[in-house]
Design a protein that fits this description.
The structure is a single chain. By secondary structure, this protein is of the alpha+beta class. Helix content is 44%, strand content 21%.
């Protein structure tokens, strides 16, 4: 350590240039970092809403909810599946932190 201090004192200009170069590189790296003010840590979610007018909740459960839940359980990376069936309406939410779902796949209307 003593030798390093002697070298820095003997070659002050070289030590100053090295320090300035190191500082400039650090400033450049900090300014080029991609930083978000509020990072998105929410899980990826898919919400399926089905309107089936005239069907009782039991029929919605049997004819709509069960087949869709069966298909959604096969999605890769899914961690949670919740569904609600009411009179003529059914909601199903699936969430995952690592799901490879894209918006173009999930926002397509049902056939």
């Amino acid at each position: 350590m003593h030798r390093f201090a002697d070298f820095a004192l003997r070659f002050r200009t070289l030590a100053f240039l090295f320090t300035a170069l190191l500082l400039a590189g650090g400033v450049f790296d900090i300014l080029s970092l991609p930083v978000e003010a509020v990072p998105d840590i929410s899980p990826k979610q898919v919400l399926v809403t089905i309107v089936a007018p005239g069907l009782a909740p039991e029929e919605v459960e049997r004819l709509v909810t069960f087949p869709i839940e069966t298909q959604m359980t096969g999605l890769p990376g899914m961690s949670d599946l919740r569904s609600i069936s009411r009179f003529g309406v059914r909601w199903c939410t699936s969430s995952s932190r690592t799901a490879p779902w894209s918006t173009s796949v999930c926002s397509r209307p049902a056939r």
